[in-house]
Design a protein that fits this description.
79% helix; transcription; mainly alpha; 192 residues; Homeodomain-like_sf
Amino acid sequence: MRVSRIQAAENRQTVINVASRLFRERGFDGIGLKDLMKAAGLTQGAFYKQFASKEDLAVEASKRALESASGRWSDAAEKNPDDPLGAVIAFYLSGDHREEKMDGCPIVALGADAARQGSDVKAAFEAGIKAHLEVLGRFIAETGGEESSGKAMAILTTMVGAVTLSRVVNDPDLARAILDAAVKQVREAAAA
């Protein structure tokens, strides 16, 4: 049965959405095309009608995951316009976010994997990281902070590192302590 162009475009978006979540949960190499396409409700044969390669999908899924993450930051900030940075910190460095394997931060979930991928995947992550830094820089500038670029880098690296470390440990008390320490450090860095 032939698929219409509209349906093909919808299928492509479905595959990208599913891949963005499954890659975050399992890593780029942690799921094969057959299982990924099955999760998207399509056959493996349909994959090659939509994408040139798995890396092509990895690029698109990375962009989608990073856009989703930026959107979640915006949503958190909109809920607390008086302290948008505090809202993002509270959301990002929370136990709930720590537990979000499929919808959590793609930088945390896929950072090490992305470093081993081709230049196109790295470019998608670079663009996403720059977008995160820009948002943080704006929030810092709104609080009257100077040198917002350097502070934004320090804050992002602290937050990503804290969520990463909190996911690596088994001890829930240690995980919570890592996140709490990061909250304190990030707030101090933003206020300095």
